[in-house]
Each structure stands twice: as structure tokens, then as C-alpha cells.
């Protein structure tokens, strides 16, 4: 089977897995549920994924990669660093529901598979931290931001945003939490040189 056809089939299967896990949660989702949602036989599903854990590993990786790409694409390389940071925050919340499946899976995943899920989420957190630290570093280098410890500040920014994530995702908020706007306006005023 050529790579394009295989990738297309895997994408259909992972779309179905995402839909099913959002409906039933990780523990209650079965391979039969996923196969039914994808409109394929269980044998077809087993051809691509030997077990439920591998389906969810692939789903988590795909959702993380898609979210990282969305964040990267949202940052206009020609905009000033403060505008780029704000664009990153706004985009993050606009697309945060995309990773609700990740929260659902990792929140309900069995103890034996939790390290895999946490490792994948750790990769997302590191990529986000590197993106924010890079924007802070560019702002300092351009003279737009005053000198700060970029790694420490990037970690603090993301810790604050993750606190807001829970409200946004789990409490079904419909818009960027006012707290995120306030946090970033206050932060940016303190950063501007």
C-alpha cells in the first residue's frame, strides 16, 4: 500500500477514534467502537493498530502535532514580538478545543498507560515553552522588551495559561478568558522597554 493511501486511512481511523473518545472516554472506548465509527472492519483497524493503546498513542501524537502547527502558523514573523505573543495566546484559546480529546484521554487513561500520555503532553509543553522563550528572546534582542530570564518567564507564562486552560476546556467557556487578556496586557506592559 502506498504511503498516501496508508496515511489517508490512518487519518480516517484517528478521526473516528477522536470522535468516539470524546463521546465515551478512554476506558469505555473499544476497538469495535472505533472501527464502527470509521466504517471499517475490526480486522482493518487491527492492520493499522494492534491494540487500543497504539490507537491512542497515535491520536495523542497527531493532536499534539496539529496543535503545534496551528500555534506556529499563527505567529506572523513580521509582527512585533508583543503582538506575536498576544496572537499566540489568542490562537491557543481559539483552538484549545482541538486538544480537548487529549485532556479527555489523559484524564481517563489507565494507570499503566499514563506515562505514555504524560510523555506526549510533556513534548507539547516543551514545544510551547520553546516558542514563547524564542519570542521573548527576539523581543529582548530587538530592544522592544527589557532583559529578563526568558526560560523562567516562559515557564511562568505557560503555567498561568494552563491554569486558565482548565476553566476554558472543562467549564465549557466560549471565549478567551478575560484573565488571559488581563494577564498578557499586564505582562506586556511590564516587558516593554
Explain what this protein looks like in three dimensions.
By secondary structure, the chain is mainly α. The chain has 2 domains: 1-50, Arc Repressor Mutant, subunit A; 55-191, Tetracycline Repressor, domain 2 (Orthogonal Bundle), CATH 1.10.357. Helices cover 76% and strands 0% of the residues. The protein is built from 9 helices and no strands. It has helices at residues 3-24, 31-38, 42-48, 52-74, 81-94, 100-108, 114-141, 150-170, 178-191. The longest helix has 28 residues, at 114-141. The relative contact order is 0.10.
Number of domains: 2
* Highest CATH level, the class of the largest domain: Mainly Alpha
Shape: elongated
Order of helices and strands: HHHHHHHHH
- Summed up, the helix count is 9
> What name is given to the CATH topology of the largest domain?
Tetracycline Repressor, domain 2
% residues in beta strands: under 5%
In short:
With 193 residues, the protein is mainly α. It has nine helices and no strands.
Amino acid at each position: 500500500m502506498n504511503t498516501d493511501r496508508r496515511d489517508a486511512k490512518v487519518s480516517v481511523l484517528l478521526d473516528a477514534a477522536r470522535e468516539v473518545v470524546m463521546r465515551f472516554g478512554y476506558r469505555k472506548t473499544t476497538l469495535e467502537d472505533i472501527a464502527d465509527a470509521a466504517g471499517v472492519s475490526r480486522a482493518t483497524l487491527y492492520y493499522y493498530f494492534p491494540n487500543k493503546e497504539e490507537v491512542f498513542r497515535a491520536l495523542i501524537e497527531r493532536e499534539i502535532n496539529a496543535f503545534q502547527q496551528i500555534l506556529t502558523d499563527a505567529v506572523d514573523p513580521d509582527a512585533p514580538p508583543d503582538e506575536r505573543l498576544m496572537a499566540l495566546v489568542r490562537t491557543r484559546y481559539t483552538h484549545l478545543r482541538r486538544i480537548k480529546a487529549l485532556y479527555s484521554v489523559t484524564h481517563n487513561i489507565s494507570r499503566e498507560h499514563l506515562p505514555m500520555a504524560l510523555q506526549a503532553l510533556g513534548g507539547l509543553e516543551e514545544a510551547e515553552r520553546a516558542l514563547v522563550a524564542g519570542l521573548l528572546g527576539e523581543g529582548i534582542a530587538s530592544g522592544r522588551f527589557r532583559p529578563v530570564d526568558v526560560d523562567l518567564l516562559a515557564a511562568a507564562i505557560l503555567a498561568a495559561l494552563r491554569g486558565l486552560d482548565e476553566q476554558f476546556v472543562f467549564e465549557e467557556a466560549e471565549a478567551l478568558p478575560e484573565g488571559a487578556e488581563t494577564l498578557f496586557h499586564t505582562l506586556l506592559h511590564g516587558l516593554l522597554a
